[in-house]
Amino acid sequence: MERVFVLPDLGEGLEEASVTAWLVAEGDVVELNQPFVEVETAKATVEIPAPYPGRVVRLHGAAGATLSVGAPLVTFEVETGAGAAFPSAAPRPDETATLPAASPAVRRLAKDRGLELASIEGTGPGGRVTRDDVDRATPADAGDVEPVPHTPVRRAIARNLEEVAGIPQVTT
Question: Most buried pick, 56, 60, 118, 119, via CB within 10 A?
Answer without folding.
Answer: 56
